[in-house]
Write a structure and sequence with these properties.
By secondary structure, the protein is an alpha/beta fold. It is about 50% helix and about 15% strand. The protein has a 9-stranded mixed sheet with strand order 3-2-4-5-1-6-7-8-9, with helices on both faces. A hairpin with a 4-residue loop joins strand 8 and strand 9. It is elongated and about 90 Å long.
């Protein structure tokens, strides 16, 4: 049997007929549909003519569309007056226009997948091309097939939704508008927690607790409430991460755990934690390197396959940019922007780790504050005699205050706790 490209002549005719009968339909699909949605050149010419007439605010009916095609010397090429009349009368009502549109869109997407697969197959046989480059090109190709179909809404609709949300907030004491809690109550109150479509940056100088803090923050809702999370680590291996998580939540010494020197009490703590921790929906991606596009693709897999609601990336400056020829600041800015795109696109919370300079500014980029919902820096208290005195400083926050939260850093347990009674 001969394989033909997916198409549906009748659906194309039905949609064009519906647009001629009710020009409001053109306005609804003008920013979505393209000429490539139509497989037949005659239908492409008819759609292009309808679109121009619509935006020129010309009246549209059988006579005017025929006249317009004649003026553009297209009438004969589309099949003459007989074919235009046939298209204009192919359906009696425009009520089913959305079904015709869905059919056309489905065929169009299948054709795009077919051509993309052919290109990928041809490139895969070309030994002069790097496999990693091929993976990135394939990822971009698939991602590019996604279309934005957001429609405008009247403010009254939004008000009605918000009134319900405000009433629910009053009933729950605001809990309905807060996300998943981290392990730090004051940080939760300030930032409203890990909410969908938000980006929270945890930044710190090298070896000063940013990974420890972020790991404790994101694993807390997973272990305590069963929230699925993804951890993409470009710095630490999966085994080291699990050691940190275990020492933190079991509250035992990490070196004692690694060296097999746990006493009976600590061994019981670890056993109790493992019974809970092994059931937690924590998914670890341990990679030595990752490009910006690979991060986007991996985040999508974590959401689709594991339903992750929080994705932590450790850390920004280790991600390989798409364009190595640009300045380092622009490269890191690209990574920052991509985390925001991923959060919005996948409706997840992204926790991005970043490294600070010695003066506590973020290394290599000034764009992080523009892209994130909150920027939190973890720093030792320089003027304190206590080597375990640290602070979480929320230096940027779109949704609340910017507190300085005193902490105690129990380094041997890879665990931080809010310092009780300190402000």
């Amino acid at each position: 049997m001969e394989n033909t490209l997916p198409s549906d002549t009748e659906a194309e005719q039905g949609l064009l007929c519906s647009c001629m009968q009710d020009t409001r339909i053109i306005g609804k699909i003008a920013d979505i549909i393209t000429l490539e949605h139509f497989t037949y050149p005659a239908h492409q010419d008819i759609w292009a003519t309808l679109l121009k007439m619509y935006f020129d605010k010309k009246p549209i009916d059988l006579l005017t569309i025929t006249s317009e095609l004649r003026a553009k010397n297209l009438l004969e090429s589309v099949g003459g007056e007989h074919y235009i009349t046939h298209v204009y009368t192919v359906v009696y009502t425009s009520i089913n226009w959305d079904e015709y549109f869905k059919t056309i869109s489905s065929c169009y997407l299948r054709r795009k997948i077919h051509f993309a697969a052919k290109r990928m197959a041809a490139d895969a046989l070309d030994r002069t091309k790097d496999p990693e480059d091929l993976k990135e090109e394939a990822s971009r190709e698939i991602t590019g097939m996604m279309t934005t179909k957001t429609e405008s809404v009247h403010i009254a609709e939004v008000f009605n939704k918000r009134i319900n949300a405000w009433e629910e907030a009053a009933r729950t004491g605001g809990a309905i508008n807060r996300g998943h809690d981290s392990c730090f109550p004051r940080w939760n109150m300030s930032t409203r927690g890990f909410r969908p479509q938000t980006v929270h940056i945890i930044a710190g100088r090298a070896k000063q607790g940013k990974t420890t803090a972020a790991l404790q923050m994101v694993t807390t809702p997973s272990i305590n409430k069963g929230v699925p999370i993804g951890i993409i680590s470009l710095e630490m291996g999966a085994e080291e991460l699990v050691d940190k998580v275990t020492a933190c939540h079991a509250q035992v010494g990490m070196n004692d755990l690694r060296d097999g020197k746990l006493n009976k009490c600590d061994f019981a703590k670890v056993s109790n934690f493992m019974a809970q921790g092994m059931k937690a929906p924590i998914h670890i991606v341990d990679e030595a390197s990752m490009t910006v596009n690979q991060f986007r693709a991996r985040a999508r897999r974590l959401v689709v396959e594991n339903k992750c609601e929080i994705i932590m990336l450790d850390y920004a400056q280790l991600v390989t940019p798409n364009n190595l020829k640009e300045s380092r600041e622009r490269q890191v800015a690209e990574i920052s922007r991509m985390t925001k795109i991923v959060a919005k696109e996948l409706k997840v919370c992204v926790v991005l780790l970043a490294q600070l300079n010695e003066d506590n500014t973020i290394r290599e980029s000034r764009t992080f504050e523009m892209d994130c919902d909150s920027l939190t820096k973890i720093m030792p208290v320089e003027e304190s005699d206590d080597p375990y005195a640290y602070v979480l400083h929320v230096t940027h926050n779109r949704n609340g205050t910017t507190p300085i939260i005193p902490l105690k850093f129990h380094k041997h347990m890879a665990r931080l706790e809010e310092a009780i009674g300190e402000q």
